[in-house]
Amino acid sequence: MGIIKRQGLKGTFVSYIGLGIGYLNLILLYPLCLKPEQIGLITQLQHTGVLFAVICQLGMVNVAVRYFPHFKNEEKAHHGLLFWVLLVPTLGFILFVALYLGFPNLFLNYFREQAPLLVEQAIWLIPVAGFMMYSTLLEHWASLYHRITVPRIIRELVLKLLASACIGLYFFGWISFPLFLGLFALSYGANVILLVIYLVQIGAWKWSIDLSFPTSALIKNMAWYSLFIIIGGLGSGIVTKIDGIMITAEIGLAAAATYNIALSMATVIEIPMRALQQISMPIVSQLISEKKFSDLEILYQKASITQLAAGVLLFGGIWINTDLLFRLMPNGELYAGGKMVIFWIGMSKLLDMTTSLNSVIVNHSPYYRFSLVTMLLLAGMAILTNLWLIPILGVEGAALAALLSLGVYNVLMVGFVWLKYKIQPITTGIPKVLIFGAVALGANSLLPELEIWILEIILRSLVFTILFGSLVLIFKISPDINQAIFSIPSWINERIHGVRLRDTEK
Hints:
Elements lengths: L1 H32 L2 H21 L3 H12 L9 H22 L1 H5 L7 H5 L4 H19 L5 H23 L5 H25 L14 H35 L2 H15 L3 H19 L3 H27 L2 H7 L10 H16 L3 H6 L4 H26 L1 H27 L7 H17 L7 H22 L4 H8 L1 H18 L1
Helix pairs in contact: 1-8, 1-12, 2-4, 2-7, 2-10, 2-11, 3-4, 3-7, 3-10, 3-12, 4-7, 7-9, 8-9, 10-11, 10-17, 10-18, 11-15, 12-13, 13-15, 13-19, 13-20, 15-18, 17-18, 19-20
């Protein structure tokens, strides 16, 4: 648990710094420098790029995590596992490019009527998807060495700063929009290069080919597992990206911009979950392989309450300031229709955080095939609910569809984990956190409106944070949170003492 908390906290801290840069891009630079259709195009390239990157990986991210204990051997470069982790997705990406270039209408006809700009600039999807794929592979390889902080710095800070630079070049008229898209795509390539350099520095670039190590039985197991992950990854990609794709095709890029800006605001809520899940994956796999299910339940429940508390804090901070954020945003009136998107997506993220590690547990257990079934069911539900609700409610319908689909999925996953391992994530702290959040939101509703919006944001944020945070700490909802908060003074003191000691030695 020590390394989970340490790396998780570092990763989350870095993500929040990146969050600040991302918010500057999202709330100020994008609306100021770009038209709604251009913002919709950029976000759609990103989201569709993620979808194709997941498919092209051919399941190797999960294969690497699941089977790393079998290959683990520092002296023998882990029997060439990194070679396969990179080779198989490369073949998948080559196949994707061949299909994309050979049958462009297969990908683009759906968007021709409502999103002609996307059809015109769709070629940039190829480098974006490829670089995203390699970035994900290398970042997860670093996580096998329990290193997530620097890769997260590269992704959350460097990548967003490069995006800011590209927007600035376009805004001042120094480059055209197509050239801006090219530089934007190449920024993801810089991410890959920096990750390779980091892996070399930490000694994780273990490059070799060992065809003699994997037994036929192990290869067969890996192949079947990879097949299930590919299908599951397709389902996962559909679930997470189908809303933006269908909004673009059915309503247009401007509506996609409204939805994706609101979605990005709400997605901030799950940053703690991303950091914790990434570093927990190898730990969960190890606990399952060693049949330490009591330890697994402790991790499961601690992750649930910690994630929910962090999620409620972030959701509350965003929701009480939503109107002010749209007022702050240049041309914010064009995007204010996404307010309820923030609410419904926020609810879906809180539900996901409450059920914490259920998908991680199933995916790294002998019952991983069940994850495929539920993911395909979730993908089907996502498509049907979007087809039903988008024509009725527009962008809000897509957000409500996400909540309904994720609700059914998480109920099934929690029930399955309980059925197989008799462990579940819910503790008595869960309702307490929700009550504390409601109390803090209620207190905020009593605050007066101020003429200076920045003062109002600061006031509302402080009141909510102090009230909610105090209740969580006083009632000791999460021992990990209390320990982390109360250890900050001693951590600062240790750092100051270390600096003074080095100065004295000099």
